Amino acid sequence: MNAEMKLGHEALLESLRGLGAADAQVAIVLGSGLGPLADAVDDARSVPYDEIDGMPSSAVPGHEGRLVFGELGGVPVVLQQGRCHLYEGWSAEEASRCVRCLAELGVDALLLTNAAGGLRPEWEIPSLMRLTDHMNLQRATPLALHERGRGTPYDVELGALIDGAAGEVGVDLHKGVYAALPGPTYETHAEVRMHARFGADAVGMSTAQEALAAHAAGARVAAISCITNMAAGLSDSEPNHEEVVEAGRQAGQDFAKLITAVVERIGSLGAEGNKNERA
Ligand code: HPA
Predict the structure, then answer these.
(1) Alpha helices (runs of H) in 119-269, residue ranges in sequence order
(2) Residue 265: CB atoms within 10 Å
(3) Nearest ligand 1 atom, CA 187
(4) How many other CB atoms are there within 10 angstroms of residue 250's CB atom?
(5) What single-letter DSSP state applies at residue 145?
């Protein structure tokens, strides 16, 4: 981290501490079209990103750009309603700064969500996929030298908890590998064939930086993709952002049901993963 990044990081850490983020047990980042989950938060208090010192903010349509504090199923949560992407010009450090700070403040579990293009023709649109791993193809990393070599950032036990919750509330949940790409353009048909052959199940433009940073900072990390479209060349139409946001909305009910059930189950386990401030 250079001096400028360090200043930004310290500023955001202080802002988040002042906002009471250290009380949250679970942090959730909401991807394109998935923002309405914030409506399910009880006693919600929202703060626009541009009022938070040190917080990089996104201008992508479908991303509201605010933090929401409150409770979901009785568990203290903080939601990031919208994220910033590398393709907007943010660095890996900036794109993951908020989740790294939340992990440092003691958030036990981080649930990352995103919209993604599906590489499996048999999957319905929209549907949900839990990430078992990712391929970071974004030509960037938020990790410092001493943070190398930690393997996959996705927590196996948290993954099993999510699968169990999905089964109990009757939400179909695929499992697969997410190829994180630089964006902002969608892939060519040839690129899609390449990613599928290399073992990816979905393609998207976010999540990897945040997962790596929060895991390195001590949080348990899980991620869920909303498969909003078939990746380019796998259906009759080319992907577009409006379709992605609309499919996210369509999946909203299942998504909210699943996330709420997951948060409740994490809450009933107590804070056991993160040994930072909160613990
Ligand atoms: N490709 C990359 N990112 C995406 C897609 C896609 O098809 N759909 C939603 N985000």
Answers:
(1) 156-169, 189-197, 208-216, 241-250, 252-269
(2) 17
(3) 1
(4) 14
(5) G
β-strand pairing of 173-180 with 75-81: unpaired
Band the pLDDT of 153: cuts 50, 70, 90.
Answer: very high
Kind and range of the H or E element at 228? strand 220-230
Q: What does the pLDDT read at residue 231?
A: 96
The phi and psi torsions of 145 (rounded to 5 degrees) equal -50, -45
Expressed in angstroms, the distance from the first to the final Cα of the chain is 26
pLDDT above 70 covers a percentage of the chain that reads 94
Question: Measured from the CA of 232, which atom of ligand 1 is nearest?
Answer: 7
Domains defined for the chain, CATH in brackets: 3-269 (3.40.50.1580)
Name which residue sits closest to atom 2 of ligand 1, judged by CA: 204
Say yes or no: CB of residue 115 within 6 Å of ligand 1.
Answer: yes
For the stretch 123-152, pLDDT in tens is 999 999 999 999 999 999 999 988 866 789
Long-range contacts of residues 268-272, Cβ cutoff 8 Å, at least 24 apart: 269/161, 271/25, 271/106, 271/108, 272/108
